[in-house]
Amino acid sequence: MRIIAPLSRRRFLGALGWAIALGGISSGFGANRERPVNTKPVPGTGEPLAVIGMGTWITFNVGTDPLLRDERTEVLRTFFELGGEVIDSSPMYGSAEAVLGYGLEKLGYPPDLFAATKVWTSSGAEGRSQVAESRRLWGVERFDLLQVHNLVAWREHLQTLFAMKEEGRVRYVGITTSHGRRHKDLEAIMRSHPVDFVQVTYNAVDREVESRILPLAAERNIAVIANRPYRGGSLIDKVQRHPLPPWAEDCGCRNWPEFLLKYIVSHPAITCAIPATTQVEHMRENMGAATGSLPGAAMRERISAYVRDL
Amino acid sequence: MGEWQGYRLEDLLMFTPEVYFRLFERYNGMVWPGHLVAFSVAIWMFVGTRDSGPRQSRWIAGVLGAVWLFIAWAFFLRYYAEVFLAAPWFAAGFALQGLLLVVAGGSGRLRFAWRVDAVAGVGITLLLYSALGHPLVGIFAGRDWNGVELFLLAPDPTAIGTLGLLLMSSGRNHWVLAVVPLLWCLISGATSWVMGAYSGLGIPLAAVVALASMACRSLGPCR
């Protein structure tokens, strides 16, 4: 098991930055970045995070298949090489956590890893044991972020996670929903509990969170992770049948993934988006959205309208 | 089960089609050369049901029951459970069906024969489809030979073939024995639909045909 010390990733990056500046030392990870990666601070602490992370729903659930496990490891390798940090998973995702652990071990546990998983059990009493099992599967001593999955038994689990944060067993606590479900409950929790992160569905078509959730997150210094940036793949499949508009270059977008992802991460309240993929080439495209300029407010409206009308 | 509240059908698909089809490639690698045994047993069943006596019918039902029990363990618990949280429930269903077939066969309630009526004809057709048609549909749809789904080894053709055999048995319906195969065809058809693997739509179609035949027999016109 690899032990990830508190903030060692940040300290490592700081030291690495100085080393590169002074002597041109290259790192195993991050050495292939063509352009600097955009980061945003976690509102509560100021810790910078790369604006593009990685989801694992469906894509990393490959069981013990050695061929597919090695393929997913290459996706992980590319993610870290291009400056990725946040990886999000859940016990609900079948074997995804075990496959992540396999890949992370093969890659020597890249220091940039920001490990985020969830608690997903209707039994409040099982929260701690489920987290312990996730730690074992990932091969990490502690998680950076633990979230209550889809608000399942959220009262009991939040109590457990805040206690774990007090004990130093996790750095951040969050709560998630998806598909636009239970936003009223989410809003109430954001107002009544000191969560560090929320995770919601947000993309150029699903914009419901813009009206209340995102302003509330900004007001209460809560980081926001955007899930389902491609609507489970259906959005990217749909738009890729059409040519990219010529004005996409004006917002620094070279392809459809950048077009869709930059829309998301350019919202001031969004901390990062977590697209999922099974392919190295798609990971390269996704991580491209973490570099270059971001669209402003007017351009964001134009992007959303364009995608909606396709 | 409270964790699953609020999900839609497409939300429940936890894996890609690639992963699903790779399961069969790995499973086939594990059971080889069981394919030769399965194919031989399938031929024996097909020929044996032409006009099987009580003793041979017991054997056919017993072997079929053992196959359902084997698939519950070998496919669902050893492979499918790796990527699908509901797989142990499917294994329980297959195990139950296996036991029901063994008990029904042992009690002499099943008697297989190629009778010259429409329902038995449908049964023979379904049995042939499960052994020959279903694997070939997968291959023609682009699946690799290594991942072929065979009757008596893979769940889908075994469920379809079992429905066929039940239609061929002794002039009356065995509804209790048909419930699990029908349900599995529905579940597997839904899985194929959500995956966009439309070659799998023959599975629920086979179930509809079997159900209609049983209803026809029960209501009278096909007796």
Overall mean confidence score, pLDDT of chain B? 90
Strand order of the largest sheet of chain A: 3-4-5-6-7-8-9-10
SS content category of chain A: alpha/beta
The proportion of residues in beta strands of chain A is 5-15%
Overall geometry of chain B = globular
Q: Into which percent range does the helicity of residues of chain B fall?
A: 55-70%
Largest sheet of chain A: 8 strands, parallel
Low-confidence stretches of chain A: 1-8, 10-27
Count of the separate structural domains of chain A:
1
Proportion of beta-strand residues of chain B: under 5%
Tell me about this structure:
The complex is a heterodimer of chains A (310) and B (223). Chain A is of the alpha/beta class and 310 residues long. Chain A has eleven helices and ten strands. Chain A has one domain (39-309): Alpha-Beta Barrel (TIM Barrel), CATH 3.20.20.100. In chain A, strands 3-4-5-6-7-8-9-10 form an eight-stranded parallel β-sheet. A two-stranded antiparallel sheet of chain A has the order 1-2. The longest helix of chain A has 16 residues, at 8-23. The termini of chain A are far apart. Chain B is an all-alpha fold and 223 residues long. Chain B has one domain. Chain B is 67% helix and 0% strand. Chain B has eight helices and no strands. In chain B, helix 5 runs antiparallel to helix 6 (155-167) and helix 6 runs antiparallel to helix 7. The longest helix of chain B is centred in the first third of the chain and has 24 residues, at 54-77. The radius of gyration of chain B is 17 Å and the shape is globular. The chains are: A alpha/beta (310), B mainly alpha (223).
What's a quick, concise take on this entry?
The complex is a heterodimer of chains A (310) and B (223). Chain A is α/β, with parallel strands linked by helices. Helix content of chain A is 40%, strand content 14%.
